[in-house]
Each structure stands twice: as structure tokens, then as C-alpha cells.
Amino acid sequence: MATRWQSPTNHDHDDLHDRGLQFDLATIMRRRRALKLFGGGAAAVAVATIVGCGDDGDATPTAAATTTAATTSPERTATTAATTAAASVSPIPTTATPASACAGALPEETAGPYPGDGSNGPNVLAQSGIVRSDIRPSFGTSTNVAQGVPLTIKLTVVDTAKNCAPIAGAAVYLWHCDRAGGYSMYSQGVTSENYLRGVQAADANGVVTFQSIFPAAYSGRWPHIHFEIYPTLASATSSGNKRATSQLALPEDVCNTVFATTGYEASIRNMRQTTLANDNVFRDGVTLQMATVTGSVANGYTATLIAGV
Question: Please, what are the domains in the chain?
């Protein structure tokens, strides 16, 4: 399935020079008191950066849901602790997203029959390794890598009730089909894979970034990418905790260019049979879900979207 923001293994290491959050807070307070004594009005701000189909209508070849063993992810625990520490030292100030770029909350859409979030069987969210940015390889028992034209996916999560301020720390679970139109964990031939699935926590600007491949167009659906938004990384372990579910659409001209390349042959026929007007997800309007895509086949593409919730 997919990959989260970093490599599947993200271990914490002891540092002799790191005395912990309590020591850091005490040091900061002493420095601030010293600054006040000298009349300097400066305040130090510490910011920690975490680096880090069926009728969905999704119709894809065949689906045989298989439950995969789940283990608690050490990456999730470590990252959540780091995020909490950073927030307690100094909250990251948020800035409003330009009104022209934030037109409202995304439409709520179906997660489809192959979400892998525990709502209909397999739950990749509980597996160690799901928090990653490169979602092309599988992790765990398989190391196979999904092939296709490179696609970087960048979502900016914003709060439409707060002048579209970025939601730092929100988590996004993202997944999509491979270039043959199959979904890992479900479709025939890829039930033992978990590539093209991953989770990322939003940075201070509300941005999550995934390295992936351009998805196929399969019968009955416009080329798209699924995602769920969770309040925090710690809560992104079960579909019951999600705040929103939606889908991102890809522009027709870029799709046609990509589908002319090797491996996407079936997508050419499927694109001819599908339009945004007859797609059963996007036919009611796609303005807030159509990604802006730049790049080329040779250098890879980047898809960006403002995800208002």
C-alpha cells in the first residue's frame, strides 16, 4: 500500500545533551526573566519541525479483502510526543490561507470499497510503517514498489471556520489505485501488497506531502485520489476517528499525457468512457476537488490542493 512521510522505521535515539522538555522549559523561563531585567522586549520562540474500485463509486477488477496483522507503530508514538513537546514550548502561529485559494470546505465523499482503514476489514492504519511520505513501496512482508509516472501530492489542510488558518498537526491518510487500476490489499494480484497508502502529519503550514505515482483511470471512475483527515496523528488509527473524507480529481489534459506512456494502456480506453459529468462522485461539482498539476512525464508531476475542513 502506501508510504508515510518518512521511512517505515523511525527510531528515537538517546542524546546525552538532551535533558528533556522540563529542562528546556526551565532554561527558556530563566532567559526570559533575564531579558526583562535588561529591558529587552525579545521573546524566544521554539518551533519543532517534524520531518518528516466497487461503487465509490469505485469499480476495479476484483476485490478480496484480506486482514493484515497490525502492530503499534513506534513512529506514531515518537512523532506525537515530539509534536506535543513543541506545542507546549511555544504554539506555532497560524496565518490565513489567501481567500482566493480557500473557497470552502471540501465535499464529503465516500471512502469507497477499498479504504484499508478498518471500516470494512483490513486496517493498515494500525500497522508499523504506515506513517511515511514515500508511499510507492509496500512495507512489512513485501517490499515491492508500485511503478508509474512519478507524482508528488501536496495537500494543505485548513480550517474554513477560522479564516482558512492552516491546521498544524492534523493527519492525512491518503491512498489510490496503481497504474493497472488495482488497490493494494484488495484487488486480484495485489492482496499481499500495501503500497500506495500512507499517513502524514501536517507541518506548521498545514501541508502534507506524499511521493507516489500517477493513478490509473479504471472503468467507471475519473482518475482520483482518496484521503481522510484526522485531528491528530495519534488519532489516525481507525476510521471512527476521522474528521473528513474526500477525493482529489486530476486534470484531463495531464491524464491524457500520462496515459499515453507505457503501463497505462487500459486507462486510455477508460478515459474515453468517463467524464466528470457522469462520474458518480464528481458529477455534482468538482471545483473544490480539482488539483492543480504541474510538471512533465520526464521530470514527474506535482499535484496540489487546498483541503478545507
Answer: 21-308 (2.60.130.10)
